[in-house]
Amino acid sequence: MEAQPHRPKLAVKTSCVAAPEKQQVCTGVRRNENFGKLQAGYLFPEIARRRRAHQEKHPDARVISLGIGDTTEPIPRFIADAMQRAAAGLGTLEGYSGYGAEQGRGEVREALCERFYAHVGRKASEIFVSDGSKCDIGRLQMMFGAGVSVAVQDPSYPVYVDSSVIMGMTGGYQEGRGFGGIQYMPCRPESDFFPDLRKVGRTDLIFFCSPNNPTGAAATRAQLTELVAHARERGSILIYDAAYALYISDPDCPRTIFEIPGAEECAIETCSFSKYAGFTGVRLGWTVVPEALRYADGQPVIADFNRIMTTVFNGASVVAQAGGLACLQEEGFKEMTELVAFYKENAEILRRAFTELGFSVYGGTNAPYVWVGFPGQASWDVFATILERCNLVTTPGSGFGPAGEGFVRASAFGHRDDILEAVERLKREFRGAK
Ligand SMILES: Cc1ncc(COP(=O)(O)O)c(C=O)c1O
């Protein structure tokens, strides 16, 4: 007799349905209650929803996005060719390879170390190549577990907070105050977008991003020295997000936290090719965990990160790593820095336009983001006005944390023509408005 397929027991309920008129089948699995704490969805899907609604209302409008921080320019030739060769090689007996090392190819780790970290004493064995920084942030959260406390810059990249919420490190959300249990470190123009660390209580983890998404502020050497001292005094671990480090041109702003003496005993750094080489779709990043970084009981953190990577990750794609290696070779590195320079010019065009219009403008010089202040106004209202009047999508600052209220972020990751057109529309609608 043939084996009967296994059929899980399903319950037909009406109580679990979104649309009450339709019966839905529910399992007996309880939802992770932390998802219920998250706000009306991740910021960017909400922006996309509003953009769609606007487009439906104005079908002929050509909407330009200065919103989501995705790249738009093609991957440079030398780098794309390297990936093409790797992909073609996979179709041959000689070029085929299967699983690689979970920590990344040796050459890629060596090349990353040589380019970005050897001068600050880091070793290739401390670098873990991955499918991107966002994924590494999730894996770091998994590694530290739900029992740790967290501080974040306010405003900041929403992934630090949302992943903490999902992990169960927080309480509920309060309008204008954020999630209970998270230490928000306000970063406002009056303090040069650096938190007043004297007012920050001790937490186990401190997420810090420089150049910051969304404010575009790059921390200076003096500020990072203060941050490292703060973490060391309190026995905290910094999770330093350097995803935009290559956008820094100010020599007083370090491109890695490991330029600060003592950081190797209190910091993990994560970085990515996403915004350097247009790898947002290719997926390649890395995380540096120094051997000297220890838990309270003296155990090395790197051993656990290695365990996480070997348990829930199976190594970055062969094709992506070939691209990453090309990015680090002379010709690829040149192409990559030219691409970064192109987006920086976009940022400068946006920065100049908002400044000419009389707005308070921040960022955009060491970062691909321009942070524009609209004091006394709600970010979502400003977002709606700019969308309605200019057919431009921006990102409301309040989506990045309570201290982002009153600001919108404009991203420089657009085609040049679109950036120029966006600037024309802004000038047409807002000239003389201030
Ligand atoms: C600050 C910051 N960190 C990390 C990421 C994600 O990088 P990746 O594409 O490598 O996952 C982003 C992407 O927008 C970001 O803004």
UniProtKB/TrEMBL annotation:
* GO biological process per UniProt: systemic acquired resistance, salicylic acid mediated signaling pathway
Please verify whether the record's keywords include Transferase. yes
Q: Which InterPro entries has this protein been placed in?
A: Aminotransferase_I/II_large, DapL/ALD1, PyrdxlP-dep_Trfase, PyrdxlP-dep_Trfase_major, PyrdxlP-dep_Trfase_small
Aminotransferase class I/classII large domain: which residues?
A: 63-426
Among the GO molecular function terms of this UniProt record, one is: transaminase activity
Pfam families in the record: Aminotran_1_2 (PF00155)
Q: What is this protein called?
A: Aminotransferase class I/classII large domain-containing protein
